[in-house]
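Example S7 (structure tokens).
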């Protein structure tokens, strides 16, 4: 199975998987559990291959929704993922600009601003800073 997030170096790739009409969200190999959990909280369904010991994890938009609602759900997820500082790429045929603008506006002005944050990276030890001296 191809993993577009690994292929393009992003956290999440959202696209319609041909020849179906299913909207997929591929996550990078080794993606944190928080990212998978967030995708599920946003309404996407988790899948694993092989089951029980996942080598590959992806999410899909529920197929019981009509095509327009699927695109709105995926697009609203993009806004939340970006605000949580994940790198996301979306195929143009999935993106719904009006849904994106609305989701961003709600996140910015809602009574409870988005509290989801990407985990803070652990600082790496750095070499001592060089000291510049004036001549």
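Recovered sequence:
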């Amino acid at each position: 199975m191809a993993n577009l997030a690994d292929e393009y170096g992003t956290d999440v790739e959202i696209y319609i998987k041909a020849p179906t009409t299913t909207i997929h969200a591929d996550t990078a190999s080794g993606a944190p559990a928080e990212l998978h959990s967030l995708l599920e909280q946003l309404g996407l369904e988790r899948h694993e291959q092989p089951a029980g010991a996942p080598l590959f994890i992806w999410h899909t938009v529920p197929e019981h929704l009509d095509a327009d609602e699927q695109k709105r759900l995926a697009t609203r997820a993009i806004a939340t993922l970006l605000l949580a500082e994940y790198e996301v790429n979306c195929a143009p045929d999935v993106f719904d600009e009006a849904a994106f603008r609305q989701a961003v506006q709600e996140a910015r002005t809602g009574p409870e601003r988005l509290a989801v944050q990407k985990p803070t990276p652990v600082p790496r030890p750095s070499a001592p800073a060089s000291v510049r001296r004036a001549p």
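Notes on this example. The beta strands are 12-16, 23-27, 45-49, 56-60, 88-90.
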